[in-house]
Fold this protein.
Amino acid sequence: MSAGESTLHAPVSEPGASPAGGFGTNEAGGRSRTVGREAQGERFDVLIVGGGPAGSTCARASSAAGLSVAVLDKAVFPRDKVCAGWVTPAVMETLGIDLDEYVRPGPDGAVRTLQPITAFRTGLIGETPVDTGYAEVVSYAIRRCEFDHFLLERSGARLLLGEPLRELRREAGEWVVNGRLRARLLVGAGGHFCPVARHLGAAVGSGEPAVAAQEIEYRMDPHEAAQCAVREDRPELYFCPDLKGYGWVVRKGDWLNVGLGRDDRQRLSSHVATFCEWLRREHRVPAGLPARLHGHAYLLYPQAPRRLAAEGVLLIGDAAGLAYPQSGEGIRPAVESGVLAASALAAALAQADPAAREAALATYPAAMAARFGRRSGHPPPVAATPGATAEAPAGWRERLRARLARGLLARGWFARHVVIDRWFLHRQQAALPAAVPRGRPQ
Ligand SMILES: Cc1cc2nc3c(=O)[nH]c(=O)nc-3n(C[C@H](O)[C@H](O)[C@H](O)COP(=O)(O)OP(=O)(O)OC[C@H]3O[C@@H](n4cnc5c(N)ncnc54)[C@H](O)[C@@H]3O)c2cc1C
C-alpha cells in the first residue's frame, strides 16, 4: 500500500452497514471525501476497528504503553459472538485475568460463567468415544458475550461502540475513519469480515479457503438440564467420518453450546443436522435442542491469504486469519497477535522518521512468524473431498489417511497426547507473557 497526502483509497464497503448511517456519506447525504464534522473529530495514536479479544487485548496493551487508543465497534457490548467459548489457561495468563475478579458478582448480582474443564470426550461421530481426564484444570468454558465485554471494559481505550466503519481514507500520513476520527496508526481487528482487511485487498467472503461453522448456545430449562448427559467439566468433541471437520458439545452450567465446523463448505447444514440428530439419538443432548444454528467462518493460519501489515496498519485476530489449523480455535492467536501488535505499535510511534516507523511496524509480521510459523498463503494442494474422481491418485491416499486416523482416534494415548494436548490445548507452547501485569490499575 502506498502513502499519500490526499484520499487514496475508495471507501470501504461494509456489509450490513446501516442505511441510515450511509456509505461514506455526509450529513447532507452526498458521497464524501470529507465529512463535514471534522471540528468535532477526535485524534488518537491508534484506532482499532473491532472490540473482540484481539482488539481489546491490543487496546489494553497499547494503552498501558502510554498510547492514546480508541476502539470502534459496530456492536454495542455485551454482544454475542458465534463461538464454542473454550479458552486455555495460557489465554487467561496472557490476558492477566484474575479468575476471582472474573467471577465476582456485578452490581446487579450477575455472575459471569467460568466453567473449569478437567476432561474431554473425543471420537468419531457414530463410534465409541474415548475419555481423557486430567488432574488439573486444562481449559475454561466461558460465554463470549460476557468474556468479550469484560475484556473491552478494562481495555483503557476510548470506546466508540454501535458505530460501524463506513469510510476509511489516508490523508497527510494519517488514517481518517468515518470522516471524523483521525489516527496515526490503524489496526484491523474486525473479525473474519473485517473491513480493514477488505481495504487491504482481502477477498473477504469469496475466494478464500475459509472454514465454515455453525453453533447454538442456549439456556436449558431444569427439565432439559436433567436430560442432558454431557458433563460440565468434560466437553465432547466428535470428528466427522471424513475427518474434514468436527462437532462439539460444551456445557456451561445450564448453558449448552453445540456446533460443528468443516473445512469444506459444502452441505454444512446437512452435516450439522446429522450430528445433532445423532446427539439426540445417543441422549447426549435434550430432545429440544434448537434446529436453527448460527453460522460464521474463519481462516486457518497456515493457508490464510491475508497480509498482516501494510503502511500504517496492522491486522490482528480473525481479521488476519489466525485460527489454529487442527482445532479452529482462534481466541489464543487473537489475544497473542493483539499483544505482539501492541509492541510494534508502541515501537513505531516512538519513531519520528516515517521509514523507521514502518520498519518498526514490520516487526509484527516477523514476531508472528516466529510465534506461529511461516505461512504459505495457499490451500493444501491435495483435493480433500473423498470420492472426487478428478483426484483419483489423491483419493486412495485420502482414504488410507482417514482409515489410519480412525484407528488412532480410538486410542487413548493418541486422544490425550495428540488430539487434546497438541491440537486443542497447545500445551507444547508456553503462554505468551502478559503485556499488562495482573491487577495493574488503568
Ligand atoms: C462456531 C465457532 C466456534 C468457535 N469456537 C472457538 C473456541 O471454542 N475457542 C477458540 O479459541 N476459538 C473459537 N472460535 C474462533 C474464535 O471465535 C475467533 O477466533 C475469535 O473470536 C477471534 O477474535 P477477534 O477479536 O479476532 O474477532 P471477533 O471476536 O470476531 O471480533 C470482531 C469484532 O469486530 C466488530 N466488527 C466487525 N465488523 C465491523 C465493522 N465494519 N466496523 C466496526 N466493527 C466491526 C464485531 O462487531 C466484533 O465485535 C470459534 C469460531 C466459530 C465460528
Q: What stands out?
A: The chain has two domains: 38-79+148-207+301-372, 114-142+210-299+383-442. The longest helix spans residues 331-349.
